[in-house]
Amino acid sequence: LHKDQAEDAEGPRALSDLCLAQVCRSLDSQCSRRADGSMSLSRAPLFPQETADQLLHRMVTAGILNDTTVGIFRDREVLRLRRASIRCCPVSAAAFRLALCPHRLQELDASWVPGGISGANIVSGLASNPECRSSLQRLSLNGLCLDWESLDEDEGVRVGFGCLQGLRTLNLADTDLTDAALEDICTLPQLETLDVSCSAVSELTALLGCKNTLRSFIAHRLRQFDMSPAGLLLVLSQLHALRHLDFSDDHFAVGDGDGGDGDEAARQLLEGSPRLLPSLVSLDISGRKRVTEAAVRVFVEARSGLVFLGLLATGVSSCDVLSSQGNLKVTGEANENQVCESLRRYRGRECFVREALVHLYNLTTDIDKPRPDILKLVLSGMQSHPTSLHVHLVATACAFNLTTQDLAEAMPVRLLTSTVTQLLHAHEDLPQPPVQKNCLLALCSDYILQDVPFDKYLAATLVINWLSSHEDPTLQRMAVAVISVLVAKLSTEQTAQLSKDVFIMKQLLAIVQQRAMEGEADSTLKFALSALWNLTDEMPNAAHNFIQCQGLELYEEVLESYYTEPSIQQKVLGLLNNIAEVEDLQAALLEEDLLQHVLALLQDPQVEVGVRYFAGGILAQLVSRPEAWTLDEELRATIVKELHTSIMTWTSLEREMVSYRSFQPFCPLLQTCQPSGVQLWAVWAVHLVCSQNGKTHKLYCGDPRVIACSVLRMVEQHQSHWGGFNERNGP
Questions:
Q1: Pairing state of beta strands 157-158 and 169-171?
Q2: Fewer beta carbons below 10 Å: N end or C end of the chain?
Q3: DSSP bridge pairs for 244
Q4: Alpha helices by DSSP H, 386-472
Q5: CA distance linking residue 462 with residue 483, whole number of Å
Q6: d(CA 573, CA 620)
Q7: What is the spatial distance between Cα 427 and Cα 189, in angstroms, rounded to a whole number?
Q8: Are 378 and 395 in contact (CB under 8 A)?
């Protein structure tokens, strides 16, 4: 396989990954507590050093790293960290100093840590360990308040970045980094990579302090930048080791202005002599205005070693010279390669992700081949900007384009699970009509609903709530279809939880009433009836809600109105079966007109067996309890007789018609004290359930003894099959 294909292919998770996941899940039971409440591993063996790093990373991605759990890393004899991360985790300055600073760290990512920890806390903590001062090579503090003025002095010397003499890479994007702090940073003797994007830096003369070591400088969207083009180019001209320069800008943020001196400096850089930045192989000026195709052509032709050029949102990425450079990667909007490169490189920059997704949407509108590589990029964009409405407006539409029809079936299942999970988060956290519509469109896929694992309970509740405020017939149909499938996929516990909500019952009954009043026998009505049927299956709470919401009266009308629609009759009668199984609700069904109608369906040989089966089930349940019967006894005797007579004429069903959570509804009907017609229906039902999911056993005779023997044979075959399986695989 090609490398990208190999990475996308489905395969089992690594054993080490599974083990670490289990450790995270059971961390509480494996730890004791110190006096301050922090955790300490009990009876822990010495972890391999890389495994300790992986455990910390796993705790970060699982969202369980905090002041309490980070305490396990205080024990350096068991867990020795080298590459540490507390990114986005609520870890305080005190917990950080106790748990991580004693380690001989080589890398630390403390970006976007909430809760008040500052860059000064991080630096002073690291500097408190003499080993870290020389060992730390990479530090990321993106998104933190540096609080530089609060740094203490150590033996008369101010503690700062300059104390971390081993630093080679320093990331300070989205911080309050000042010109004074930048001067301190540029004294680092080994500094090679520096990111000051979106900071308060106003001028870059301090870079001359590391002109012989700095190889990569990233300065995206400097909000307070105040250098003339000539002054900037003078500084850049002395950075002899610089190979990558990012001087891009957020064109959404600067509005419709001309971009000022920064844009002019970018233009002059392109048009300048190759003796300016002679080692440069990578330049990013995405978002800069005033860039011309002529300037791009001059720059590219003069630098044969160029490997990357960022031109997204400049308007010149379609320059013909770019296509002739085989090894040159370009971010832009001219073609799929440029757009995908933009999504790969700019994952953390909302403005560029948004821009690239707009162009990707146009590229994927008529896509006819599965592209998991592109879906991964879309998913990454959503995950990186979970609260951005601008990103999700387009990303959700792209996700739908990439998973529509048969495309989803060719995608890795884990990728689809992650995508659907992100769509559900977007639906819940960004309740805007276009986003929610796109999420619903993507969810309305038989393959995704049936075969892809995701939180179906969350999905069901979100779609049901969404349905309450939308009346568009097309979207309503899709929503009800999704709900009907999701409800059938829920566990018994989840269905019970969902069935407690009267609001859900009211919503679905309102759909049934609306469609029935219009005389429609469309898929919306059928899906709503299916959802209600599944929702009430062995769920007394849902059955009570159905009666409370006047569902019985509505269903009686539907039953009479759709006499010639067997698919609708089956769903109506199926739900009434569920009601009949609840003893304290049977009285609600004891209406002579209703029972006469159901009896007529049972008796009519022109009616499909499926309809007659459910009609028989209702009647069997109601006549099985003579002590609760309140109608004329002659009617009960007629029902008992007709049950036996009708069932004796039924033939086997060729298709799967119904599934049951258990055999519990049939057990009371199989008692020896029950009339033969009641017993016969129950045995026929058990046989139906057993034969639907295995080899079909034809019923040539309505004799209950024959049917019962057939059921027993199927049970014996099942036991024999699994018994043999167990023997082959040991105890």
A1: unpaired
A2: C
A3: 216, 282
A4: 389-403, 413-429, 433-443, 446-451, 456-467
A5: 10
A6: 13
A7: 49
A8: yes
Q: Which of 647, 621, 620, 653 is nearest to 706 (CA)?
A: 647
Which residues, in sequence order, are CB contacts of 405 under 8 Å at separation 6+? none
Q: Write the DSSP assignment of 527-573 as a string of letters.
A: HHHHHHHHHTTT-HHHHHHHHHTTHHHHHHHHHHHTTT-HHHHHHHH
- Phi/psi-derived region of residue 687, left when phi > 0, alpha when psi is between -120 and 50, beta in every other case: alpha
Pairing relation of β-strands 216-218 and 138-140? unpaired
> At which residue do the structure tokens 């990728």 appear?
415
Q: What is the largest CA-CA distance in the chain?
A: 107
Are the CB atoms for 151 and 122 separated by under 8 Å? no
Model pLDDT, residue 730: 35
Q: Which residues pair with 138 in a beta bridge?
A: 107, 169
Neighbour count for residue 674 (Cβ, 10 Å): 20
Residue in 629, 715, 713, 630 with CA at minimum distance from that of residue 678: 629
DSSP sequence for 153-168? EETTEE-SGGG-TT--
Q: How many residues does the chain have?
A: 731
- The whole-angstrom distance between residue 66's C-alpha and the CA centroid of its chain comes to 23
Q: CA 425 to CA 438: how far, in whole Å? A: 13
> Residue 35 class from Cβ within 10 Å (0-12 exposed, 13-18 middle, 19+ buried)?
exposed
| Rounded Cα gap, residues 128 and 154, in angstroms | 9
Instruction: For 326, list phi and psi in degrees, rounded to 5.
Output: -60, -35
- The β-bridge relationship of strands 138-140 and 169-171 is parallel
Measured CA to CA, the distance from residue 524 to residue 507 in angstroms comes to 13
Secondary structure element (H or E) that encloses residue 130, with its range: helix 130-135
DSSP letters, 249-280, are: --TTTTTTS--HHHHHHHHHHHHS-TTSSTT-
pLDDT per residue over 249-297, tens digit each?
A: 997 764 434 457 899 999 999 998 888 999 999 999 999 999 999 999 9
Tokens of 536: 């009430």
**Token pair in block for residue 199:** 């900071």
Segment 649-696, tens digit of pLDDT = 998 776 777 777 778 888 889 888 999 999 999 988 888 887 765 544
C-alpha distances in angstroms, 475 versus 380, 437, 438, 440?
27, 8, 10, 8
pLDDT value for 711: 64
**Within 13 A of 459's CA, how many CA atoms are on the CB side?**
31
Burial class from Cβ neighbours inside 10 Å (0-12, 13-18, 19+) for residue 472 reads exposed
Q: What is the pLDDT of residues 302-351, one digit of tens each?
A: 998 999 999 999 999 999 999 888 899 999 999 999 999 999 999 999 99
The answer to whether residues 244 and 279 touch, using CB atoms and an 8 Å cutoff, is no
pLDDT for residue 699 is more than 50: no
Contact criterion met (CB below 8 Å) for 268 and 233:
yes
Q: Cα(460)–Cα(221) distance, rounded to whole angstroms?
A: 42
The Cα-based distances of 11 to 380, 424, 660 in angstroms read: 20, 25, 34
Rounded distance between C-alpha atoms, residue 542 and residue 549, angstroms: 10
Average pLDDT over residues 123-146: 96
* Cα 575 from Cα 618, distance rounded (Å): 9
Residue 111 has pLDDT above 60, yes or no: yes
Q: Which residue stretches of 303-386 are H helix?
A: 320-323, 336-345, 350-364, 372-384
Residue 707 Cα distances to 40, 624, 680, angstroms: 62, 20, 9
**Letter for the amino acid at 417?**
T
